[in-house]
Amino acid sequence: MTYITEERTALSEDALIERLKALPTAAVSDALDALGIAGQLLGVAPRTATGTAAGRAFTVRYEPVDEHGGTVGDFLDEVPAGHVVVIENAARTDCTVWGGIMSRVAAARGVAGTVVYGACRDLAASEQAGYALWSSAVFMRTGKDRVRCAEVQGRVQIAGVAVAPSDYVLADADGVLVIPANRVEEVLALAEEIERTETAIAEAAIEGGSLVAARTSFGYHALQSARDSR
């Protein structure tokens, strides 16, 4: 009986991730706005042409090296397949915390992607590996002897947004957003409603109708309005 329960939970989680991955960040962002949830990561941009990544967050926090030294960290062995690595390096742009070796190994292990609040490097190697990568900067200088891994799987701050381990991450060509784990189902439901409505508006206008009339008919201007939590 325990086995069946765990299997159903895993299947449900897989289905939830697939629903999330099927949505654009724009629709999810509108849902976050309507529900009053801060989740958009300002200034974090795609660095490889790999489409969309969705999964639970695996968080890592870096800090500057002091007189006690420290290392850049070998946390990758701990990252489960399907998770998205979210690294906080205080938006530091003068050294990297993610490079080609990490991308190649992560791709081979089925990690969904990496988001860096700071700099990454070796974009060609990441592209060749087909690995999904987003960051707030690109710079080739190593982080060795400049930063150290301070914490793994703790709460991090990315562009003013708090990210906890196992929150949900969605990233695409428009950027990256994070959904608190305890709000994901209501955010998904609203984002799917928004996406269906916007598709219907576009189709109505393309088929010869007035865009103004289509927006009015489908309630476009109320889509992103604040609403009660569902």
In short:
With 230 residues, this protein is α/β, with parallel strands linked by helices. It folds into two domains: 38-179, Ribonuclease E inhibitor RraA/RraA-like (Glucose Oxidase, domain 1, 3-Layer(bba) Sandwich); 187-222.
Describe the overall structure.
The chain is of the alpha/beta class. It folds into two domains: 38-179, 3-Layer(bba) Sandwich (Glucose Oxidase, domain 1), CATH 3.50.30.40; 187-222. The protein contains six helices and ten strands, in the order H-H-E-E-E-H-E-H-E-E-E-E-E-E-H-H. The strands form two sheets. Strands 1, 2, 3, 4, 5, 6, 9 and 10 form an eight-stranded mixed β-sheet that branches. Strand 4 (113-120), helix 4 and strand 5 (133-138) form a beta-alpha-beta unit. The longest helix is centred in the last third of the chain and has 23 residues, at 184-206. Mean pLDDT is 88; it is low at 1-8.
> Per the principal axes of the C-alpha atoms, what is the gross shape?
elongated
Strand portion, in percent?
Answer: 25-35%
Let me know the largest β-sheet: 8 strands, mixed
In the predicted model, the low-confidence regions spanning at least 5 consecutive residues are: 1-8
Question: Which helices and strands occur, and which strands form pairs?
Answer:
Layout: H1 2-21, H2 25-35, E1 45-46, E2 53-64, E3 84-96, H3 100-108, E4 113-120, H4 123-129, E5 133-138, E6 147-152, E7 156-158, E8 161-163, E9 168-172, E10 175-179, H5 184-206, H6 211-217
Parallel strand pairs: 2-3, 3-4, 4-5
Antiparallel strand pairs: 1-5, 2-6, 2-9, 7-8, 9-10
Helix pairs in contact: 2-5, 3-4, 5-6
